[in-house]
Amino acid sequence: MIIHSLIGLMISCGYSELIPCLQLSVQQRVFNIANELLHTEKAYVARLHLLDQVFCAQLMEEARARSSFPCDVVMGIFSNICSIYCFHQQFLLPALEKRMEEWELNPRIGDILQKLAPFLKMYGEYVKNFDRAMELVNTWMERSSQFKAIIHDIQREERCGNLTLQHHMLEPVQRIPRYELLLKDYLHRLPEDADDFKDAQKSLELIATAAEHSNAAIRKMERMRKLLKVYELLGGEEDIVNPTNELIKEGHILKLSAKNGTSQDRYLILFNDRLLYCVPKLRLIGQKFGVRARIDVDGMEVSETSSMNMPRTFLVSGKQRSLELQGRLSLSLSLSLSLSLSAQNCTELGKRAPTPIREKEVTLCMKCQEPFNSITKRRHHCKACGHVVCGKCSEFRARLLYDNNRANRVCIDCYTTLVGVPPSPASLSSSTQRRRSILEKQASVAAENSVLCSFLHHMEKGGGRGWQKAWFVIPENEPLVLYIYGAPQDVKAQRSIPLIGFEVSLPEPCDRLERRNAFKISQSHLTVFFSADGEELQRRWMEVLSRAGRGEELQVHGPISEALEEEGEELAPLAEST
After folding, report:
1. 467-483 burial, b if ≥16 CB within 10 A, otherwise e?
2. Cα atoms in the 13 Å half-sphere on the side-chain side of 392
């Protein structure tokens, strides 16, 4: 619109001979932005090559050949960088190079970005793993001299540009915002009546969505980082570092004494499920707090109190304790908001028999997430909620109305809800009180609404283990990621594999596999063999994995068998997929 107004003004003022120069300038600016996108993409692919084919490859070779450090460490550091590299090196960069070669005939980039932008969602996995990857690099640089030597040798090479591994690993985190900025500039320079305007606009929306996908992972990391800060603030004595915990508010507040009304400095920490009432600890270095009371959000009431001498006071009443507090109104509002949004509804607990989960479908305790075994960690049902838990997490008994008020085995959470108070510390076993390692806490991944899920036997080439049976899921909302569970009811996945860049094929004679209906997926550093229970299941998995490996998202709105039959057995090329 601005360009058209300017052209109209120039015509009315008698400067029509300058219009071609102005139009040429606009076209040149658009070309320059597209060319900058290409050049930055080439540099970015070179950086990805360095990460995947040099750093990762050499570390993995050392881990497999000499076992100087575990292969899992290398995989934990580089996450899905191989899939990201394959996508940019095989798809996005060639498409941009071809388009810039034919720019005079087809001056546009919006259609390319519109087709490939949805696959940038894979960056969420990388960003989510970034902090842990940095920790692993720092830990193993100190722990393994061979690990450190390989990193330093590569960093001294000219292609590294005197930059550290950590610096190179930061590049993918910053890449999607760079796409967004370039595309915004491109749209700003592009006339609204240009052929590429609508495609570029749609591309920007998709890239913004991908950026939000990464930003969501960043926000999740930020929430976990806040939990860790609170964990340290409490001296590591409170088990709060859990993906299900959400820190809503924390801060200093004054507690009013019930005896004489004097105020005392206290610290409140509000989570989505409980309020921690803390008191300062005397320390020479750094301030720490001890938890004086834990008040469940469920059943808590918050009310403002009026006092001429004590403004901004409110009363918190819970099952465990009542507190009269004085402080900022925002904290009171946060408490009230948390109560109104609390999804906990325990009114039916114990009044009707739960639907029990099959024991064989769970390999981990649904409370402490410790693996079951037949000797020291046996399975038990909580008779109140139906969850499968270990003996240590269900060593409590509570009376249940549906069972004529008889005492039944229940888990610790149901015991606290039904009895109204938590178990005494003396009744808790050392296992129940044990603080789990932060690395043991993993986010659970729902297997519902999946593109495909079933039991398969699997074995990693060079992994040193034989065939193992597991439950495999490709979620509909993450169709480019394969999740591996020990059983369908497990609350966390054992492992996830980003699928883009993997090739799917039948095993070769040299693989020497004895199982029937076998197939494999392969990428530069990883080969995994699978075995299905039948030929039809083998065909379905090979088809879905092949499409995911090429970056073709499957949108399944009905049973997977019907969807695959309608689409046919031939796999469409990527150019036709979007």
Report:
1. eeebbbbbbbebbbbbb
2. 16
The CA-atom distances, in angstroms, between 340 and each of 334, 420, 449 are 10, 20, 29
Please give the residue that has the higher pLDDT: either 344 or 251: 251
pLDDT mean over 369-382: 79
Q: Identify the three-state secondary structure at position 389.
A: strand
For tokens 């240590």, the residue is 392
Indicate the pairing of strand 450-460 with strand 406-410: unpaired
- Closest Cα partner for 203 from 133, 332, 131, 114? 114
Closest C-alpha to 335, from 270, 277, 276:
270
Contact 254, 327 (CB under 8 A): yes
Distance CA 183, CA 425 (A): 59
Strand arrangement of the beta sheet that strand 322-326 belongs to: 288-296, 274-281, 263-271, 247-256, 322-326, 313-317, 301-305
Q: Are 302 and 313 in contact (CB under 8 A)?
A: no
**C-alpha separations of 345 from 42, 68, 280, 410, 546 in Å:** 54, 51, 33, 17, 44
Domains recognised in the chain with CATH numbers: 2-220 (1.20.900.10), 247-341 (2.30.29.30), 359-436 (3.30.40.10), 450-577 (2.30.29.30)
User: What span, in angstroms and rounded, lies between the C-alpha atoms of 470 and 458?
Assistant: 7
Termini Cα distance of the chain: 31
Return the SS3 of 444: coil
Amino acid at 152: H
Query: What's the CA gap between 319 and 549, in Å, rounded?
Result: 53
Distance CA 86, CA 521 (A): 15
In this prediction, residues 521-549 reach a mean pLDDT of 89
Give the DSSP per-residue string, 21-37: HHHHHHHHHHHHHHHHH
Please give the model's pTM, rounded to 2 decimal places. 0.48
Could you tell me the pLDDT band of residue 273, with boundaries at 50, 70 and 90? confident
What residues contact 187, with CB distance under 8 A and at least 6 apart? Answer: 197, 200, 201, 204
**To which H or E segment does residue 475 belong?**
strand 468-475
Per-residue b/e over 547-559, b at no fewer than 16 CB within 10 Å?
bbbbbbbbebeee
Q: CB-based contacts of 547: which residues, under 8 Å, 6+ apart?
A: 553, 554, 571
